[in-house]
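User: Okay, second chain of the day. Same drill as before: sequence in, structure tokens out.
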Amino acid sequence: QVQLVESGGGLVQAGGSLRLSCVASGIIVSIGTMGWYRQAPGKQRELVATITSGGSTNYADSVKGRFTISRDNAKNTMYLQMNSLKPEDTAVYLCNAGVVSLPSLRYLEVWGQGTLVTVSS
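Assistant: Same drill. Structure tokens below.
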């Protein structure tokens, strides 16, 4: 069974930075596109950024130029470097990945439990 575990959230002042990590564990054969999503209180979940296995990236307009997504395929880990944080970035950040694992060898979409980021003004 594959699990995604996020870390790195916390409380930061506006203008500050945080780095989130997402580690995939299990008997993993391959990981396709990975992504960060966020959900603020009372709002729908929204895409923050995605990265393919080859390293192609995509960002929400609201975070372009401030956030950087990256991954280390050897460590089955994805990162989100968040700079110039704003109060409106406050949310639970969740990671998502398409994973092929043993013994099923099926391609499954997996979600982490999330890590809370709070940006104070």
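The mean pLDDT is 97.

User: Thanks, on to the next one.
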